[in-house]
Every structure is written in structure tokens, then in C-alpha cells.
Amino acid sequence: MTRVRIATFSSIAILAVTMAALAQGPGRPGARRPHGGPGSGGGERLASFLELTDEQIAQSKAIREATRTAIEPLAAQRRANREAIRAEIDGGSLSAEAIGRLVIASHEIGDQICAIRSEGEAQFVALLTPGQKEKYEQFRERRAQRRGDRPILGPRCAGD
User: Fold this and answer.
1) 91 DSSP assignment
2) Tell me: the pLDDT tens digits for 75-93?
């Protein structure tokens, strides 16, 4: 009897988490951009605010492109996982094990994406002079205030 309860509870918990994830939808294509410099949430305004040199702008664009290139296959895999979860639910099979594996895999991919974004931002910050770093922290603080509880680097990313 205890095994049945545990299995039932686990299935319900996985289904609840899955439904919450699906309720968020796939998002708007191109709505989020990897962070790491101008063109990623601040663009030219950030470059102007920080008074970046042409060389810093060029380097930050290279960092942003490298970040985007690293994230694209992971984002594609995460989208494929969401579609597979939907297929499991829509198909009526509701295999808790299969859905659970996909949810865990999506979570792990999200962690990888967060790490790549954080690394891109760290590389961008390394380009800055001490005065620019100070201004960048002010920029981040103001952006965090405007965004409220929404994370800056994306879902679940630490350090936002």
C-alpha cells in the first residue's frame, strides 16, 4: 500500500511540475538574448552608459556571439524536451518515468545555459575598467529594481 501511495504521489508531483512548465509556453522567439555585453539587454545604451571604446564593443560582440553559439544547441534540446513532454501528456500515456526524465534533463540543460550566460557576463566584465565596472554594477542594480523578482540572466540563474 505504501508503494502505491509513493508512486501515486510521485506521479502527481511530476505531473504538477510538468504542467507548470508547460503553462509558461515556449516563449517568444528571439525574446531572450544571451547576456554578455552590448546588444544583450542594453545594446548601444549600455555601451554609451559605460563609455565603451570601439575595441571593447568589438570584444563584447565576440563574447556575445560565442555565448549565443554555445547556447543555441542547448536551447534547441530544451525545446525538444518540452515538445516530448507535451507529446507524452497529449498522447495520454502519461508515463511518469518518461516525463520525469525529460523534466530532469531540461533542468540540467537550464543549469548549463545559466553557466554559459554567467561566463559570458564574467568575460564582458573582465573587459571593463574599474570605473566602468562600478557603472555596470549600478546598471545591474537599476535593472534588477525595474525587473522586480524576474531574473536577469534567465530562469533560475544564480547571481541575478
Assistant:
1) T
2) 999 999 888 888 878 877 7
